[in-house]
Amino acid sequence: MKVFQNYPLLDHNTFKMKVSCRQFIELERPEEIVNLCEQNLLEQPFFILGGGSNVLFTKDFDGAIVHPVFQGIERMDEEAQSVTLRVAAGTEWETLIHYCLEHQYYGLENLTGIPGLVGSAPVQNIGAYGVEVKDCIIAVEGYHLSSGAPFRYDNADCRFGYRSSLFKTELKGQCFITHVCFRLSKEPHYTLTYKALKDELERQQLEPSLENIVQTVRAVRDSKLPDITQIGCAGSFFQNPIVPATLHESLKEQLPDLVAYPAGDMVKLAAGQLIDKAGWKGYREGDAGIYPKQALVVVNYGHARPEEIRQLYEKVISDVYNKFKVSLRPEVNII
């Protein structure tokens, strides 16, 4: 365990906010979280930070940031058609994607290019191009922060939902995830329900394969999303809203080309389209802006202050509601 005082967070958040925390704690082994509990170090305000790719710091954090750096991928069980991997929380998500590509394990390939660490993936139930990580997770392991007691929640216990889980709702801020267990297929299995992905494969005349899917997903992502090493952002800033069917029907009269997907008795709309239709796509005020290629993305072009980012996304939320009566919610953690 390493502990730093008055630590700058510029390199630990992809929005590139120039903020700091009172204490920064690097955990080099999973069980070190128990030591923090026993020493009452988590009685102060704290936040568990992975890769910092899904967070907006609006000011300096007057507390402790807990950051796992332990990594590793273990094969726990292997059968003729499937394999079970136990992956440490501090492992880069893209490292896991590369591992699956190298060993020809199917299931996570649509999720390539998502920044962050493996431990954060189940919290947000990350998803892209027709796949959610819950589709491959069989269990999540970690420690309860109140007692230091270990836990293992099976998939059904995690209460996964759209960009949500038990760890983001009932147990928010109460758990430290150490490992995520995945069951992946060893036989070719692809999800090509996302139109842009399917169209790009056909355009390039590529047959489905792990390599081609990964290559194509990265190409589609790069065509829409900024390079976080060049432009500060946290990927998709807003959740796609889920609305009653009656609101969907009325909106279709206002927006004939409205994009919508079934969501049980409700309807999921495309937040990016609504923001675009409201006239915000490409908007820029100082160094805070809405990315010109994807209206879901709020960006820091260089030196935007936290309050400037906050003012911008609040304006977008207010304007979209005023025009369409749809309430947008941030997908990122706002601290």
Structural account:
- With 335 residues, this protein is α+β, with helices and mostly antiparallel strands.
- The protein contains eight helices and 20 strands.
- The strands form six sheets. It has a five-stranded antiparallel sheet with strand order 6-7-12-10-11, with no helix packed on it. The protein has a four-stranded mixed sheet with strand order 1-2-5-3, with no helix packed on it. It has a four-stranded antiparallel sheet with strand order 13-19-18-17, covered by helices on one side.
- The longest helix has 19 residues, at 306-324.
- The two termini are 24 Å apart.
Write the layout of secondary structure elements.
Elements: E1 2-8, E2 20-27, H1 32-38, E3 46-48, E4 55-56, E5 61-68, E6 73-78, E7 82-88, H2 93-103, H3 121-124, E8 127-128, E9 131-132, E10 137-144, E11 150-154, E12 175-185, H4 195-203, H5 210-224, E13 232-233, E14 242-244, H6 245-254, E15 260-263, E16 266-269, H7 271-277, E17 284-285, E18 288-290, E19 298-300, H8 306-324, E20 333-334
Helix pairs in contact: 4-5
Strand neighbour order, sheet with most strands: 6-7-12-10-11
Helix content: 10-25%
Query: What is the top-level CATH class of the largest domain?
Result: Alpha Beta
Give the C-alpha Rg. Answer: 20 Å
> Gap between N and C termini, in Å?
24 Å
